[in-house]
Structures are given as C-alpha cells and as structure tokens.
Design brief:
Elements (H helix, E strand, L loop, with lengths): L2 H4 L7 E3 L2 E3 L3 E3 L14 H12 L4 E8 L16 H16 L3 E7 L10 H6 L4 E2 L23 E2 L4 H16 L4 E6 L4 H6 L14 H19 L3 E5 L12 H17 L4 E5 L8 E2 L2 E2 L6 H5 L7 E5 L4 H9 L5 E4 L1 H5 L3 H7 L34
Parallel strand pairs: 3-4, 3-14, 4-5, 5-8, 6-7, 8-9, 9-10, 10-13, 13-14
Antiparallel strand pairs: 1-2, 11-12
Helix pairs in contact: 2-3, 5-7, 7-8
Length: about 375
C-alpha cells in the first residue's frame, strides 16, 4: 500500500474560523532566531514561502513577541510595532500568493526572560510573571557567564499584560494574517498562570482552577475583539518544559476547566500537545512532566472548536486520527524544518529523509549568512 493511499484523509479541506485551509497538514510554530533587531526580513520570507510552496495547509509563525523581552533567543521577531507589521506583511502576502494560510503565534515568555538581556534592558521594565517564583533551568548563551532563569517580578495588575496581546493582535491584523494562535504551552506566560507552582497569587488571578484559568481566557477574549472567530490556542497539559507541571488531579481539573470554557468562546481550533520526552526536564532524577493521555483526556471536551494534535505525529498516524474523527488536523514541527516540501512529499509518497543541521538550527553562519540550516534543505525530486 502506498503512502499516498494511507494518508489520503490528510488531503481534504478544513474550515477553521472563517478560513478554509486546503489540507490538514499544518506547520506548527518553530523558533528559528533569524530576525536581528526583531524585524521580520527577506530570509524569513523565503523560509515561509518554501513551506507554503511545499504544501502546508496552514502555517503558524514562530513565536512573535508581543512586547520587547529578554529571551534566550535574542533574534526572535516581534509584533509590537508598525515596522514589524510591515515586515510580516511581506511574508503574509508571499505565503498567500502560494495558496497557503498563515496565523501569527502571539508569545509572551513571562518569567523565562532575563533582566540583564539587552532587549529586556531596552524594554525598561522588569521580567513580569504571575508570582515572584523562579523557574529552574535556562541558559542565556549570549550573556556573560551563560546564566539561567532568575526570580521574576510579580505583575501587580495582570490585565496590563492581557492588553499587550490585544495590541499585538492589532499589528498582526495590519499585517494581513488569517488569524492568531496564542502560545499557551511550554511554560510561557499563559501556562505560568495555569500552574500552581508558578502562580501563587491569592487574588482573582490565582488559587482555584477557575482563577488560574482567568488570564488565558481574558487573553482569548481580548484577541477575539481583533480577529473574531480566527483565534486559536496551543496547550501542553503534560508540562515539563520550563519547569511547569502539577499533580495529575490538579492538571486534569485545571485544563479540563480551561478547555471547556475556552471552547465556549468560539475558537478556530485548540491545539493539544501530547507528552514529549524531548521537552521534559529531569529534576532530582525524575521527569518534571505529568504524563497522561492528552488526546483521550481533553479532546472529548472540545465541542465547538477544531482539534489539532501535535508532538511526534506521523502522517500515517495523523490520517488515522482524522479518519476516526479523533482530531481534525495535525500539527508537525521539526520535520517542517528539515523538509520544506513536507506535505508535498507525503502526498507523493516520498520519504522524509533530510538530516537536521543542528549547529545552525537557531542561527546561520553569521548575521550575513542566515540561510544555512534554514532555507538550505533540499526538496525531493518529483
């Protein structure tokens, strides 16, 4: 049996929000650190166009910072200014010309930025988080001594951070994006509000599952004021990465509440990240994540939004999940880095056989040659 016949379920259109995507192989957000000065540029445009031409039904951009932050990736792009929006617009227009759709991923790192990073100093504000609780880990390679995470500043009024997402959404709309995906996964700001370890507030933003879900729900509402039904969220209930994770009972209570409430708001899709050993961290000889069956636990709670699944999904498994109506689409990450024509390969039964250029995953040879390990992966022969 050919790969083409085993994956045919992937190649049917899907309506998400007000947009119809041509197939169900989506490209998930992938930080690539190729935007010196935080402005999207021509090499980024080439990268996204390659993957649109390669058949991505929906592209979700790398995390676009909603405000200036001192991240571990000093060349991550932003979306808080007109200049950045203009850079993104060139990318969006080019992706549309190739027949793909594209969402902007809106990203705030919360406590996993560093106050000594140049971008954080330039921002002139502290590293904000729900509570003054440091995350374990971190490696700021571009700072002297390569420090890890430090204790953040508890934000006095979280609604000021909600506004940053809305303001960024306005710039994303200006750039012509088809929608916005909220980064609610991997231990970043929205997750930090969910998590009992990082959120120790005693006001309406902390404590109960309802209160810890409030921030994420308010961000959704704010961004929907800009993008309407074309808003989605990415979640990683198992945790692990960036020192988040709760006991199973708390995890299921929190994410079940949030997902049910978010689904009522009318989202384009909810993307569920399965447990990933690669994203887990070991603390005291034990994995930090709370392993459980993410799809079986949470997908049945989603009644209105489309369901996307991410983490180690093969095209063949994805087609089966779609055929059996367990999910509506699959989100593929790393294989899109190494295969610009991934969806086209799957459609034509070609193997995914490019090797990753790990040394150039997050930077090229130098600032003048950002293409290496970025836009240099070959397509298959058709």
């Amino acid at each position: 049996m050919s790969t083409t016949s085993t994956t045919s379920a992937l190649f049917t259109p899907l309506k998400i929000g007000s947009t119809t995507i041509p197939n169900r192989i989506t490209m998930s957000a992938l930080t690539r650190n190729r935007a010196p000065g935080t402005i999207p540029n021509d090499i980024m445009k080439e990268y996204y166009v390659q993957r649109a031409r390669g058949g991505a039904g929906l592209i979700v951009t790398e995390g676009a910072l909603v405000t200036r932050q001192g991240t571990e990736w000093p060349h991550a792009p932003g979306i808080w200014s007109s200049e950045q929006a203009a850079g993104w617009k060139k990318i969006v227009d080019a992706v549309h010309d190739e027949g793909s759709k594209i969402y902007a991923q809106l990203w705030h790192l919360g406590r996993v930025s560093h106050p000594d990073a140049p971008e954080q100093k330039l921002a002139g504000v502290p590293v904000y988080a729900p509570s003054a609780v440091a995350a374990e880990g971190g490696l700021f390679r571009h700072l002297p001594g390569k420090p890890g995470y430090v204790t953040p500043t508890a934000v006095e009024d979280p609604s000021t951070l909600v506004k940053l997402y809305k303001d960024a959404a306005v710039f994303a709309k200006e750039a012509g994006f088809d929608g916005a995906e909220l980064h609610g996964a991997n231990g970043y700001l929205i997750t930090q509000f969910f998590d009992k370890g990082s959120n120790q507030r005693t006001d309406k933003w902390g404590g109960s599952a309802e209160n810890r879900s409030r921030f994420g729900l308010e961000v959704i509402k704010a961004v929907k004021e800009v993008f309407g039904e074309n808003v989605s969220i990415k979640l990683s209930p198992a945790g692990g990465y960036n020192d988040v994770g709760m006991p199973l009972e708390d995890t299921i209570e929190t994410y079940s509440y949030f997902i049910k409430e978010a689904d009522k708001l009318g989202l384009a899709y909810i993307e569920l990240m399965r447990y990933s050993a690669k994203l887990d961290v070991v603390v005291d000889g034990k994995g930090r994540a709370t392993q459980h069956d993410i799809l079986e636990t949470y997908a049945p709670l989603i009644k209105n939004s489309k369901v996307f699944v991410n983490v180690d999904v093969t095209p063949e498994e994805g087609a089966t999940l779609i055929s059996t109506k367990k999910v509506d689409a699959i989100a593929i990450g790393f294989n899109w880095i190494t295969h610009p024509d991934l969806a086209k390969r799957v459609k034509h039964g070609k193997p995914l056989d490019n090797y990753p250029d790990i040394p150039h995953l997050q930077w090229g040879k130098d600032e003048k040659d950002l293409a290496v390990g970025y836009t240099t992966y070959p397509e298959a022969t058709y």
